[in-house]
Amino acid sequence: RKQYVCGMEEKALGILPPERIAQLAAEHPEWEFEAESARAVVFVERIDDLSEECKRNAYIGVDAAGGLTLFDGPPSEARAVKTFFQLDIEHLESALPEDVVTQLREGIRITDLTDYHSVLSTFSDYAVEETEDVMKPGM
To answer: Would the pTM of this model clear 0.90, i.e. be above it?
Structure first.
């Protein structure tokens, strides 16, 4: 399994003897090894990039609940993949130009890792801050 920042690809290697599995693990120490069952294992390679599918279809926008969300396609199609954080919509709308807010609502096309990080960084300034000490024991 290739696990990207956005997206995943899987390829079946078939039925392998234990010796070959051990050999693959030794040849690729950067891969994580996961036992899915007593008879199935998965090697996971984490890749700091977007999958080809994400490069073709990814948008970052606002979901119906006001969360900054990664979508497979434009946000209007409502195929959410991952929500990053809740946005302070009032603050965002008062601080940013109307065209930027409109662009975010319609979805910002993400074609590479630089776009991905840039959009997250830009809108992280408008994240709702979690209240500290809400669930501390003894309070």
So the answer is: no
What lies within 8 Å, CB to CB, of 12 at 6+ separation is: none
**Separation in Å, CA 113 to CA 6, 57, 108, 118:** 9, 13, 13, 8
Is 6 in contact with 51 (CB distance < 8 Å)? yes
Point out which residues pair with 34 in neighbouring strands: 42
SS3 call for 28 = coil
The owner of tokens 């990080």 is 117
pLDDT in tens, 27-59: 999 999 888 877 888 999 999 999 999 999 999
Structure confidence at residue 130 (pLDDT): 57
Tokens 């994240």 map to which residue?
127
Residue 138: how many CB atoms within 10 A of its CB? Answer: 3
CA atoms within 13 Å, Cβ hemisphere of 109: 4
